[in-house]
Each structure stands twice: as structure tokens, then as C-alpha cells.
Specification:
Radius of gyration: 14 Å
CATH topology: Alpha-Beta Plaits
Number of helices: 3
Distance between the termini: 29 Å
Number of domains: 1
Largest sheet: 5 strands, antiparallel
Order of helices and strands: EHEEHEEEEH
CATH architecture: 2-Layer Sandwich
Length: 98
């Protein structure tokens, strides 16, 4: 299972994601794809996100059952805490600098 949530992404990126995944809400994509397709989709996000941001989450064999990574400006930053992936919030003034 793969979930991608985008904000302020260009229409061409949204179209590219919609080829592989189901867009259930504006900017929210879900699907069940192979690891190879997942890596390709991440590369497409990196190349096409421009000024937007995204979170990319997938099912994996970890304590929590999933992993995720983010892209672009956002106050929410993934951190590793004793093997668990958690979310840390940057102060508002530092979020602008990211």
C-alpha cells in the first residue's frame, strides 16, 4: 500500500501520479505498487514538485508497519526515535527557511 499527499503541486505532476495511483481527493493518491514503481514515483515527485510539498508513506516490515518521507517546505519533519519514525514540528520562523 502506498499513500502520497501533495500540496501546491503542478498539474503535470498530479497527472503523472494519477496514471499509477487512484486520486481519492485533490492531491491524495493511494495504490498498491511494487517497490520498483514506488521508487520511480518518488523520483517523479523529486523532479516535479517545484514549490509544493509532499508526504510519501508506504507499508513495510517495521514496528509501526509503515515508513514515510517528506519533500518540500513543511513544518513537519520526519525523525528517527529509537527505531520509530515520528514527526517533529519546526518552529514557524524556521519552517520558512526550510
Amino acid at each position: 500500500m502506498l499513500v502520497i499527499v501533495t500540496e501546491n503541486s503542478p498539474p503535470r505532476l498530479r497527472g503523472r501520479l494519477a496514471i499509477w495511483l487512484l486520486e481519492v481527493r485533490a492531491g491524495v493518491y493511494i495504490g498498491d505498487v511494487s517497490a520498483k514503481v514506488r521508487d520511480m514515483l518518488w523520483e517523479q515527485l523529486e523532479k516535479g514538485i517545484e514549490d509544493g510539498n509532499a508526504v510519501f508513506a508506504w507499508k513495510t516490515n517495521t514496528e509501526s508497519g509503515f515508513d514515510f518521507k517528506t519533500l518540500g517546505k513543511n513544518r513537519r519533519m520526519p525523525i528517527d526515535f529509537d527505531g520509530l519514525r515520528l514527526v517533529s514540528f519546526a518552529p514557524e520562523d524556521k519552517a520558512d527557511a526550510l
